[in-house]
Amino acid sequence: MTVDSVPMTASCESEKALAPVWQIRVGTRLSRAAAIAGLAVVVALALLPMIASRNLIQDLIFVFTMLALAQLWNVLAGWGGLVSVGQQAFVGLGAYALFAGVVVVGIDPVVAILLAGAVAAVAAAVLGPLLFRLEGPYFAIGSWVAAEALRLICAQFKSLGGGTGMSISPSELSQMTGLKAVQALFGLRAGAARDILIYWLALLLVVLVTLSIYVFVRSRMGLALAASRDNALAARSVGVRTGRIRYFLWVVVAFATGMVGALVYLQKARISPDAAFSVTDWTAYVIFIVVIGGVRTIEGPMIGVLTLWGLISYLSQFGSLYLVVLGMIAILIMLFMPRGIWGEAARHWNVRLFPTQRVLSRNS
Amino acid sequence: MTSLLSVSALDAFYGDFQALFGIDFELQQGEAVAVIGANGAGKSTLLKSLAGLVRNRPDAIRFAGRDIGDSPAANIVRFGLALVPEGRQLFLSLTVEENLLIGAYGGERTSPWDLQAVYRMFPVLQERRRSAVTVLSGGQQQMVAIGRGLMSNPSVLLCDEISLGLAPIVVEDIYRMLPRIRGNGTAIVVVEQDIARALRSTDRFYCLQEGRVTLAGRPADTDQDAIRAAYFGT
Amino acid sequence: MNGFDTIIEGVLLGGVYALFALGLSLIFGIMRLVNLAHGDLILLAAYLVLSVTTALGVPLVAASLLVVVVMFAAGFALQRLVLERVLGDDILPPLLVTFGLSIVIQNGLLLGYGADSRRLQAGAFESSSVTLVPGLSIGLAPLAALLTAVAAVALLQLIFYRTSLGRAFRATADSPPIAQLMGINERSVYAIAVGLSVAVSVIAAITFGIRANFDPSIGPARLLYAFEAVIIGGLGSLWGTLAGGIVLGLAQTIGARINPEWQILAGHLTFLAVLMVRPRGLFPSRRP
After folding, report:
1. Assembly ipTM
2. Which tens digits make up the pLDDT trace of B172-209?
3. Topology of the domain comprising C3-115+137-277
4. I need a labelling partner for C36 at 20 to 30 A (CA). Which of A35, A243, A364, B129 fits?
5. Smallest CA–CA separation between C101 and chain A, in Å?
6. Is some CB atom of chain C closer than 8 A to the CB atom of A149?
């Protein structure tokens, strides 16, 4: 992580020689340490398939993909103010684009992931101008309607299994780029090697998504969004134009969400409209992760996804009760700890691993 | 004789910003008092504190035998203290008559002011009773705002800048109604930037500057230079 | 089934959708709150009526009245205990809390009642019909639903424009701080509004539960239909909401007529089309 520092001479000082320099800092000593630790964790995770069981690999694919979705939702809703409950639209669309690309057209699954992102981005680009006409909270339901409409449209394609869905056969996946190499490297059968390949792709995706978001929220555009969220009128009066930034954010987030969706369903190798466009799986869990960890922080979703993973391991056998408990936890957190676990901790101990706030400090 | 309304050592804050410093203020039944001062002197903040829109220590404001410094605005109007807010602040989705009726929402004090009494004072409002308030002239809107304040039958009517943005002749019309309001035993506090107008129509005045009372007295007993000094701080 | 039948059926279905939409429209108009649990609260009401009629053997009408009272209290308490703490300039907290509530209610119903489809029993009423002209008859239950919707709109309109509570609603919607100066307690006005919204939803639940099967998973779809009716009709107008419900009902029945799989999709597409050509809805409020 870099330290953004802008030297500014304090204009009111009369003794120029002794004038202290003010700096706007974002980075801290801790954040540099965290960056090194983060790099170490990513390297360790990349090497993990050498020793990990297939079960753990599959669990971590879940963790990485959910984390990526959570980071994406967080930047969209938390920073961008676009509270969407329809992100399943882009998960599902990405997944269906992947299946169409692989099964119908017969392209390489890894290439199809990019195609999936592109399809989701195009859909977002078309839907955006319509949904942005809805005021604040109504945008939330509007995005949900859009997701439902896309689910019903996908269910119309008989070549993609219609309403009941379809599977990809192992033979169609055997052409995947790099699969042979991974098989040779680890001496594994195709199924296990495919999981490892998907694991690496998911790791790459979540790292890229997290870093991009970090760079984005620290950029001028991120600052503009924050300013407009705090006071739209004042922000406009100093020339902040958020309409375009929001639109750009909406489309780019859809692109990344579509790729995550494609990756998730590449691993599952089976798709149905109800599952791929599920509001519970792709939006409720994601919101839960962000809320419990802390809205508008980069660290929050990481805490949140680990919490969810823990809860799932212990509670998911209880079915509906488990979802009741998750919902209650989310409500209680919003009521009594609205900054989430990480937000509270950061405030209490004043730590920020991925600092996004600018601090004006005197450099003596 | 104890005052109807008495303010002692009132400090008012907006978040961390302190707008009023140790204000003392008295008002007797049926009296008319002006609060004058330059922009930002704290006049509106004083009225907002009295009306409960800015909260305070309970005993900073005592009204009709009650400590009301920390009472919510919705209760204070029931006790008999009504504010005609700066800029009129009418309800745009309500008609003229509905704006007046909502003034009586508290519903506990019913005389002497009711719809008929307000219409007798401002006959033009009766003609336009079903209109949206947005089509009224500025003066008529101010009449609605005053009428709305009176509908709660207050023992004190707080008027914040009622001449703001109105033609002098319209201001004259509105100020001519003040004695009628006082005739019913209602005390009036007017906040004005127009010093001469304010002093002409009231018994006493307080002059504020940067959140403090710099001068108080009767207009007749106070010389112009003293008022100017208290107003501008020269 | 001929074309005229389709239109009648669509209009009648629209009555139910308008009833779904009224509660949503009401609290958005007064407090800018969008309750994502609205559909699940409708389902909760339907199940409560089911329990009171079957388990306690209370007649439907009495059960409905009882549940209206209970749900009004529940809505009032929901606002005072939960929503009030998160309402503010940031739109995120209330959306997330009501979304959480939606998940809790939906899965709570699943735990309590199971996933089976249920239906409210209204005796002979549900299957009887009136014949308008030879060859054209209308089911009594759907007709009653439409008439109920019209009556509900008229009643809410009366409350809004003819009572002091209605003036307080509109004044608070205009400006909460100035409304306080009038002696209006914003907290109780909001709580009454949410209570009323949930109580109206009970009526929606009953008219819906008599004519169609329901199970715990269909709450969110009710929310979406309600929302579509509000937006199609135009914000800020209750009669517009009724019209929006009818347009949605027509779109769905006409869609289903062309291809049974297209019923819901036709509704969604109509909504998106209205958003495209008339973003303020078909019958927007004339007031500012």
Report:
1. 0.92
2. 889 999 999 998 889 999 998 888 888 888 999 999 99
3. ABC transporter involved in vitamin B12 uptake, BtuC (1.10.3470)
4. A243
5. 7
6. yes
